[in-house]
Amino acid sequence: MSAAPPVVTAAELGVDDEERPARVLSGFPGRLVGVVALGLALLSVWQVFRPLAQGSQYYLVIFLAVALPLVYLSYRSWWGPLDRADGPSVLDWVLAGVTLVVCLYPVLPIGIGDAGGGYDAFLDRQGMLAPLDVVMGGLLLVLVLEACRRTTGVILPVVCLVFLGYGYYGGLLPQDWSIAHAGLDIDQIVDALYNSGSGFYGTPLDVAASYIVLFTLYGAVLEFSGAARFFVDLSVSLFRRSKSAAGRTAVASGFLLGTVSGSGTATAVSTGAVTWPILRKAGYRPEQAGGMLAAAGVGAILSPPTLGVAAFIVAEYLDVSYVTVLGWALIPTLLYYLGILLSVEIDARRFHADGRAPADPADGPLPTPWWKLLGRFGYHFSSLIVIVVLLLVGMSATRAVVYATALALLLAIPDRMLRSTSATDEGKSHSPVGADLTKTSAGQGITESTGNTNADRGSASKADGPRWSRKSVGQFVIEALRSLSYGMRSALPVVAVCAAAGVITAMTTKTGLGAQLASLLVKAGSVLSDDPAVVLATTAVLAAIALSLLGLAVPVTASFVIGWVIIGPALLDLHVAAPAAAMFVFYFSVLSEVTPPTALAAVGAAAVTGAKAMPTMWHALRYALPAFLVPLMFVLTDSGQHLLGRGAVLDVLWVSAAACVGVAALAAATGGWLFGIGAIGPIARVIAAAAGLTLLYPNPVATGIGLGLLVVAAVAGLVERANRTSTDTP
User: Fold this and answer.
1) Phi/psi of residue 16, each to 5°?
2) What secondary structure does DSSP assign to 596-620, as a single string?
3) Hey, is 433 helix, strand or coil?
4) Which helix (H) or strand (E) holds 111?
5) b/e string for 517-549 if b means 16 or more Cβ within 10 A?
6) CA–CA separation, 588 vs 301, rounded Å?
7) Do residues 521 and 542 make contact, with C-beta atoms less than 8 angstroms apart?
8) d(Cα 587, Cα 16) in Å, to the nearest integer?
């Protein structure tokens, strides 16, 4: 059997949905960051069961005071001679120390003239900050923006500066402009950011510290337990005989791994390391395979039960439970993967009909049958089931994920035992494609095996079975704690983004910019017609374009926050239901991850397959294109809410069925293949595209017209095939 393919990780490529690559820390800095990150992780868990008596904002102050200095120690400054790749520089240590003091300043019980004095005294000065308060708040602003620059790049800090400039200089705008305002002075800006619930310590950071960190810890523990490896192995075994097995395996791996990842780029890179050799063998070009992996990976941000970061913010903004948001996401997620799977099937028929399945007997021993894998390691699904069950019975999302994390830690024990015994009993004859999926240690550039390494499995095969000694138990405990620490470190970029997002929300709230821009968007939508339906459709299209363009520059989380405070009110003013408007903004914020020219998931997948980045992005866009139009269904009519699972069962079923047919029609148009007909030409593709667009308007009349157009497309395809046959016949 061939050797395992090389594993490429997100950290090694330096890309992720929300982050740049972090340093590889060793020695004292590595131990310090690891211990502090573990302590912060445990504090986050403690807060779930024993909240700090001073309140949630006090907890956020402590949380940011610990997390933000870790960013300066873990991430490079990229400032030439002041920068170090192998560890923190003197400047980084200084910035970390200053950050700690500035963040803790509101809670330090030390009086300094008319400033200081502890947390209660700090809150009492809201709206009347002391000069030292303003200095500290200004320093924290600079430090937050710098931390954001280090972890995500320069674009988001620049966007924050634009909002700050608008807040300060808004009074200089012509007063007949709708976006003009009186202007804010420095004290007012710092007060809004530093001493209110809408700035640094607003909803985005609250969500990061209360929800996102816990789900990130859960994902890290799941990978440590061997669950991620099992999901990929299961996908490989499921489709070992079909002609389109290679593509199906890549998509299924992305879906299964995405249920626990919540990161599009990391999912694409991790699954690509295992499935790229399979895709290459089946005849996929590097760009095409990379596009498929990127599209499937981005679905991780849409896949329950661990949706992307913005989903938690949706729950907070709308004041609903997280399980409610999961319910809204279920059908659209299935539609997203339906579009990709249909595109895969079309590609298999058009380009890869002669490609061999990944388990072709000519390539060596077959992988372990799926039913054996499921019987042996299927318990890895139990923690996912536990989360859903606990949410359904009314438990909070924070407690549910903590219990699921504890269960995943326990399941790591039988995983190691079973993999050791399976290595003894079977050797390598049934090893799924010989690949070992690895996890990145929170973007730290360190790669750890999820389960045993190849060397470990080799040594285990020589033993009579698993041996648990005091030393091995101690090592297991250390690795478990290390996974928690790595999980916390992987959340640092999200913490920086959420703190920076507070700048945007504070300035938007303080100046009333959101309402003004929403009004402008609605006015632009009414240019074509005064008909409410036309105004809504035009506004929705303009909003979709704006969100797609916004997502090119900033991470998904920031894109959603900006989109919600600006585009959300415009949709609400047009009487779109709040859930539909929020999910519309959420989905287009996510889908920007596959939009050229800055599709990070495609960049990561291209690095795995050795493809050129830009062609890979266009292939990713082709695979995901049908899904781009599905969110429009949420807002165009009241019936669109049925796609979120809201309404009567029959209504949900017919709208979902129409959406499925619409996605299939769009996949046929983009892929040039109609099932039952075969390859179709330009005319049939245009008609199929029109049918798909019509079917995505959730209205019974539009559905009937769309089905009729699809029949016309099929007839046109038959005519084109007949013409090709007559032309080819001598």
Assistant:
1) -165, 170
2) TT--HHHHHHHHHHT--HHHHHHHH
3) helix
4) strand 111-112
5) bbeebbeebbeeeeeeeebbbbbbebbbebbbe
6) 12
7) yes
8) 18
Distance CA 253, CA 330 (A): 18
Taking a C-beta distance cutoff of 8 angstroms, is the pair 139, 101 a contact?
no
CA distances from 280 to 60, 192, 361, 602 (A): 48, 54, 17, 17
Q: Which two tokens stand for residue 409?
A: 């830690």
At residue 677, φ and ψ (nearest 5 deg) are: -110, -45
Maximum C-alpha span of the chain = 99
| Number of CB atoms found within 10 A of residue 728's CB | 7
Give the distance from CA 177 to its chain's centroid. Answer: 37
| Gap between the Cα atoms of 526 and 522, Å rounded | 6
CA 702 from chain center: how many Å?
A: 33
Band of residue 103 on the pLDDT scale cut at 50, 70, 90: very high
Amino acid at 71: V
C-alpha distance from residue 614 to each of 109, 258, 322, 545, 611 (Å): 55, 24, 36, 20, 9
Extended strands (E) in 292-358: none
- Which of the two residues, 543 and 453, has the higher pLDDT score? 543
Task: Determine contact, residues 601/660, Cβ cutoff 8 Å.
Answer: no
The pTM of this model reads 0.73
Q: How far is Cα 156 from Cα 466, in angstroms, rounded to an integer?
A: 50
Q: Report the alpha-carbon distance of residue 249 to residue 278 in Å, rounded.
A: 9
56 CB contacts (<8 Å, ≥6 apart)? 206, 210
Residue 711 has pLDDT above 50, yes or no: yes
For the chain, what is the mean pLDDT?
78
| Tokens 């033993």, located at residue | 463
CA distance 310 to 17: 12
CA–CA gap between residue 300 and residue 265 (Å, rounded)? 9
Count how many Cα atoms sit within 13 Å of the Cα of residue 218 in the half-sphere of its side chain: 29
Please tell me whether the peptide bond between 532 and the residue prior to it is cis, using omega within 30 degrees of 0: no
| Region for residue 291 given its phi and psi (left: phi exceeds 0; alpha: psi -120 to 50; beta: otherwise) | alpha
